[in-house]
Design a protein that fits this description.
The complex is a heterodimer of chains A (71) and B (267). By secondary structure, chain A is mostly beta strands. Chain A contains one helix and five strands, in the order E-E-H-E-E-E. Chain A has one domain: Ubiquitin-like (UB roll), CATH 3.10.20.30. Chain A has a five-stranded mixed beta sheet, covered by helices on one side. The N and C termini of chain A lie far apart (41 Å). Classes of the chains: A mainly beta (71), B alpha/beta (267). Chain A binds chain B through residues 7-8, 29, 32-40, 43-45, 47-48, 63-71, and chain B through 17-21, 27, 40-50, 53-54, 56-57, 60, 73-74, 76, 82-83, 85-87, 89-91, 93-95, 161-162, 211-212. Strand 5 of chain A pairs antiparallel with strand 4 (38-45) of chain B, so a sheet runs across the interface.
């Protein structure tokens, strides 16, 4: 199990030590269709191309960001 | 008259925000009425499966496509150069643009930009290939530093964001214009009335960025049109050349040979 914060909320995922961002997102989204988003791991941007090769460790924080109105 | 931002020619000198409208439909109508081709937007933490954000994003996309325009993502809410860099990279991936409206909040009361973090963030972003449009105070030296770092566009505030107080310090704004003649200067934040925008354009500013003044009007669509007209009027006046102010009255009608001319000392 890995305990990971997503958008500030605690989540537990059945992942081994080699778990990566792509695997975390697959478990988090649970097959639901997703809109456009970008992501940061522990406050640093990770591009979509790197999701599969970026490890996620116990206690890490993921921020998932979506477009909103802005001034 | 067109405005050029980082090589992109625009038909309007108004840049407009997408926030604070009572509905996405009204936002779209107001932006279309404004004639603007640059629409600001942002990112926030949200679960992608929530549908509310997706609808707004769809409306903004439709609107920008309709006006053959450009997205200008901001870094609202960031307080440090590191936060800015992370958000800017996310924006670039989602919005497919290297334009970034750089905001670094320094104070919770007046939401004044933090000039120290602003300069740090600008250096980092430019080094990473971003085209930076920094939102800053009306501090001449900060504006000069931003220009020296490579910002082709600089966006000093008129007054604190969302106040609608208009041009707090016209002297500072005029001085920035005079000292940075080559910079594209866009007045950003604090605009309340179309006359505020007109005044800035009469000073020689290149454009206006606003949101609240349109979105919070009783009739945002009509107000968007009013701002468009005011910005055009101010720009035309600047190009036409505004007369010098004089200390004494001068008759505009020729007085020579008028029948009731009163010569000094003659009753």
């Amino acid at each position: 199990m890995k305990n990971i914060h997503i958008n500030g909320q605690p989540h537990s995922f059945a992942l081994d030590e080699a778990g990566n961002i792509e695997q975390v997102l697959a478990l988090f989204f649970n097959g639901q269709k997703q809109s456009t988003f970008a992501l940061a791991l522990n406050g640093e941007f990770v591009g979509k191309a790197d999701y599969a090769n970026t490890s996620v460790n116990n206690g890490d924080s993921l921020d998932i960001m979506l477009p909103i109105q802005g001034g | 008259m067109s405005l050029t931002i980082y090589g992109q020619q625009l038909n309007s000198r108004l840049l407009i925000g997408s926030a604070l409208y009572s509905s996405p439909e009204l936002m779209k109508r107001a932006i279309l009425a404004s004639g603007s081709q640059v629409v600001t937007l942002s990112l926030k933490r949200q679960n992608p499966s929530e549908k509310s954000g997706a609808k707004i994003w769809q409306y903004i996309q439709e609107t920008v496509t309709e006006v053959d325009g450009f997205l200008l993502p901001n870094t609202a809410g960031c307080r440090s150069a590191q936060e800015v860099f992370t958000l800017a990279q996310m924006s670039r991936e989602i919005f497919q643009t290297d334009w970034i409206k750089l905001e670094t909040i320094g104070d919770d009361y007046n939401l004044q930009p933090d000039p120290i973090e602003l300069i740090k963030a600008t250096e980092i972003l430019i080094k990473d290939g971003f085209k930076v449009l920094p939102y800053c105070t009306d501090d001449l030296v900060i504006c000069q530093r931003l220009w020296d770092l490579g910002c082709e566009v600089i966006m000093p505030w008129a007054s604190p964001i969302g106040t609608g107080k208009g041009l707090m310090n016209p002297y500072n704004l005029e001085t920035i214009r005079m000292r940075l003649p080559e910079a594209t200067l866009i007045l950003d934040a604090g605009i309340g009335k179309p006359s505020d925008a007109c005044l800035a354009m009469e000073m020689g500013y290149d454009g206006i960025l606003l949101n609240s003044a349109v979105a919070l009007a009783d009739n945002p669509v009509a107000m968007a049109q009013a701002f468009s007209g005011a910005i055009n009027a101010g720009e035309q006046a600047y190009v036409a050349g505004i007369m010098q102010q004089r200390q004494t009255a001068q008759p505009s009608t020729p007085t020579l040979d008028t029948p009731f001319w009163h010569q000094p000392g003659v009753n």
